[in-house]
Structure formats: C-alpha cells, structure tokens
Amino acid sequence: MTEPQRPVVVLDFGAQYNHLIARRIREAEVYCEVVPGDTPAQKVLERRPAAIILSGGPASVFEPGAPSMDPALLESGIPVLGICYGMQLMAHLLGGRVEPAGRREYGRTAMRTLKPTPLLEGVPATSVVWMSHGDEVKAVPPGFEVYAATDHTPVAAMGDPRRGLYAVQYHPEVRHTPEGTTMLRDFLFRVAGLRPNWRPADFIAGAVADLRARIGGRRALVALSGGVDSAVAARLAADAIGDHLTAILIDHGLLRAGEVEEIAAAFPDLDLRVVRAEREFLQALAGVEDPEAKRKVIGREFIRAFERAAAALEPRPEVLIQGTVYPDVIESGAGHARTIKSHHNVGGLPPDLPFEVVEPLRWLFKDEVRRVGEALGLPDTIVWRQPFPGPGLAVRIMGPVTAEKLAVVREADRIVREEIRAAGLERAIWQAFAVLLEARAVGVMGDRRTYGRVVAVRAVESEDGMTADWVRLPDAVLERIASRLTGEVEGISRVVYDITSKPPATIEWE
Ligand code: XMP
C-alpha cells in the first residue's frame, strides 16, 4: 500500500511515549509514520518526508552503542523537531554540549519562554511541561538559539531557524504538558508549513485507488470476523474491486447474538460465504476445560475451516486482504514491542498462507479505523463494536463449553449489551459482557425454590486492554440487568457484578 501524502517521519529511539507522538500528529490531521531511529538517511528521504521528528529514548548519548541517527538528515533542509533524547542527540551531533543533568527533572515543571519563536507561538510566556530526563543540553550547537528554560534546565527549547532545526527537552506529546498539542501543531503548521489534510475521505480515495492498482484483475479474499478492522478492510476492498472480492466468515458458533446477521446486512453487495462450523467447533471443544487448551482448539479449528473454505473457491483468489492496523505494524516493525500475550492472536490467520497479503489499514490507529468506517457508511453496530476475543463466548463459559451453556451466555450477553446501549454507555465502556460461572446458587421464584446458574456481569474501562478498571455502573442499570437476566434467561438464578481491576484480574475470566 503506498502511503498517502508526504509523511512526517518519526525516528524512534525507544521511549515509552513514542506512539503518542504519532497519535498527536494524526490528531492534528497530519499523516505520519514511525521508523527505527537508525534508518539510513537515503531510506528516510525516499519517503519524501515533509518533516522529521526525533523521539525520546531511555539511553544517554554518551553510552557506548547509544542509538543514533544518520546526521545527513540534519543537513537535508527538511524541518526537524527533536524531543528529549532527540534534542540531546541533535545537540551532540551538531557540536553542542550534552552533560548529565546537575539535578534531574521529572514530572510537571514550569517553563519560561525567553525569546519569541514560531515553535512556541500561541503558548503562554509561562507554561507547564512534562520533564523526564537524566542528561541535558548545556551548550547549544553553533547557529542555535535558546527559546525557553526551566529552573533546572537552562535549555528547555532551542532552534536554528535558518536550517529549520528545533528541539525541546520536555515531552509535548503527553497530556501532562497541557500546551503540548499547541506546541506540536506550531511545529507542524508554523515551522514546517504543513496543512491538516489527513482526513477519512482522503484516506478512502487513496486506499481504494491503491487496492485497485495492487490487485489488478486478480481475485481477492478477506476474512470477516465481526470486528471493525476486518469490516473496514473488506468495505474498502469491495469498493475497489467489486465482485472480484470474496469474503469468508467462519461462524464457529461462539459469536454473539445477531452478529452474523449484522455483518451480512452490512455487506449486501459482497460475495459473502458464511461457514457454519458450530458443530465441528463444539465437537472439538467437548470436555475441554482449561482456558489455554480451549484457545488452542479454537485457533486450530479456525485455521482449518478457513483453509478448507478458501481452497474450495473457484477461481482461486491470489490476494488476501487483512485488517492489520498501525499499532501492530509499529510493534512488529520498530522492535520496541510491548509483550502481548500470545493467546491474543487466537482467531487469526498464520503468516504462511499461500496468498499475497495486502493490508489497507496498516497506516491507521483504531480510532482512525472507526472514523474511516463511519465515512464508508458502515453501521454503528460494527464501527463501535467493543473488542471481542477471537475465541469468543468460549472463554466466557467457565468449564467445558456445551450448546446449552452457549445459549445461556449468548442470551445473557445480549441483555447486558442492550442495557449498556440503552443507558448510552456503550462507547464510553471498553467492554461489557456476561460470564457464565460453574457455580450454582439457590433462588426463589414465585413460591418455588430454584437451584440455578450464576452469571457474572463485567464492565471495564481501558485505553488498550493492557490495564483496566471496573466501571461504576449506575445502580439503576445494574438493577435492570439483574432483573432481566433472572427474568428472561431460563436457568439463571443469581447475578453478581465483578469489581476487580486489571491487574490483578484480567478482563476476561479465562
Ligand atoms: P485479558 O483477559 O487478557 O484481555 O485481560 C485483554 C483483552 O484481550 C481480549 N482477549 C483476547 N482477544 N483472543 C483475542 O483475540 C484471545 O484469546 C483473547 N483473550 C482475551 C480481551 O477481550 C480484552 O479485550
């Protein structure tokens, strides 16, 4: 996929906030990419960058083997902004003096502007910035001027306007720097002269044209999962190549109520093959209790079912469209991956399938995928669908999965989601769902004693699923959920609400 427009290229030196730099730039409607910090100048220049940003990083420029960059990029005439380590590196490479900070500054720090500069236009003379550094620039390189300082950092911002080189010691990309967005926008729009033009409609036009060119007259295949990424990728591909696209949806019987129908309704024009494989999956899962074992079985069966369905297609598709999104690309490409539990890939396809893989969303963050989905006219139920695990309802049934338990948890899940939606909380909540426990509890209905199933309701808020907090749902919502679950779902006699955060618990119960 050719990338749209001339990008801002972020050279990544390994700081934990780096993905935020890319996010803030995208939020300013400017297209950007993250590449490893030591990418050769020629490779960076091939991307025709409109501006370059040097990220922060945990190293010190003095350490042997400290990450560096091709200095030619600083002489290329392209505007550059160095951030934290990026500033120290710029100073170090251009003849300034970097030293360990006399006193380390960490956290919110008051900064004074010393000299007017387009870099800090619109920023008050005194503002709060977020500092986190062990070294600092003691003397700026020849040609540079100092724009701002804090009590303990004499050079908090510097630049050489003639060469378009600027740098800041603080982190404008984090929310703790309240003027950070203004500062980054000042760099993009005032210093580098960019325009905000990274909008869904531009992306869609570019992506459709690109898919058409890449696929040519060949046939392509896409696996729909019910999630927003694969749906948006499929919509783009369908708009690009029409009836040369076939979609496969493996219905493993572990999806939620109405999902298959929703997807089919959203793609009336698509050659959609729904593979009904519930029986095979349930057979393979029979008696399997251990959560990891369940995942293995489902992963294996999923790939089998997909391969079988793909092999039966005539004529044979040569291209596989995948909904890979940008965080996956950064994680695998730039080498600073945070560790994601391997089980989170369950329900995906292996890399060695006999297709040319095309990934139209590889430049987008999740919220951008949603905006594109909306612009493409996909229904809200798909665009705003909460994350749902690949192994589906199987990991929301404690103990072995049976058709009967599946029916109970699916119905319970439908009610929980309906009530969350009715309360207007669906978008604010990361995930809300029901879990069917192994336990039984005594209840009373009419004047009859019951001994029924226990359902746990879980609702969490989260940024990325790595940590999460339980949602303080209004009592009235909890009450309605409990009374509907016990009243409408046969066999449920008790409802409990999960009030553990992650950590120590995980989001799913299995
Ligand atoms: P946990 O339970 O580990 O979940 O806190 C974090 C996020 O990952 C989802 N999840 C999965 N997604 N396959 C997936 O595709 C899986 O096996 C899986 N297990 C958990 C979970 O729903 C939450 O969003």
From TrEMBL:
Q: What function does this protein fulfil?
A: Catalyzes the synthesis of GMP from XMP.
Q: What is its EC number?
A: 6.3.5.2
Q: Which CDD domains match?
A: GATase1_GMP_Synthase (cd01742), GMP_synthase_C (cd01997)
Q: Which domain of life is it from?
A: Bacteria
Q: To which species is this protein native?
A: Candidatus Hydrogenisulfobacillus filiaventi
In this protein, the active site sits at: C84, H171, E173
Top enzyme class, one word, equals ligase
SUPFAM superfamilies noted in UniProt:
Adenine nucleotide alpha hydrolases-like, Class I glutamine amidotransferase-like, GMP synthetase C-terminal dimerisation domain
Q: Name one GO molecular function term.
A: GMP synthase activity
Q: Name one Pfam family in it.
A: GMP_synt_C
User: What reaction is this protein's catalytic activity?
Assistant: XMP + L-glutamine + ATP + H2O = GMP + L-glutamate + AMP + diphosphate + 2 H(+)
Name all GMPS ATP-PPase domain ranges: 198-385
**Entry GO terms, CC:** cytosol
Q: Can you name this protein?
A: GMP synthase [glutamine-hydrolyzing]
Which residues hold ATP? S225, G226, G227, V228, D229, S230, A231
Q: Which UniProt keywords apply?
A: ATP-binding, Glutamine amidotransferase, GMP biosynthesis, Ligase, Nucleotide-binding, Purine biosynthesis
Gene symbol of the encoding locus: guaA
Please give the pathway this protein is involved in.
Purine metabolism; GMP biosynthesis; GMP from XMP (L-Gln route): step 1/1
Work out whether the entry's keyword set contains Ligase. Answer: yes
Query: In its keyword annotation, does this UniProt entry include Magnesium?
Result: no
In terms of PROSITE patterns, this protein maps to: GATASE_TYPE_1, GMPS_ATP_PPASE
Q: How does it assemble?
A: Homodimer.
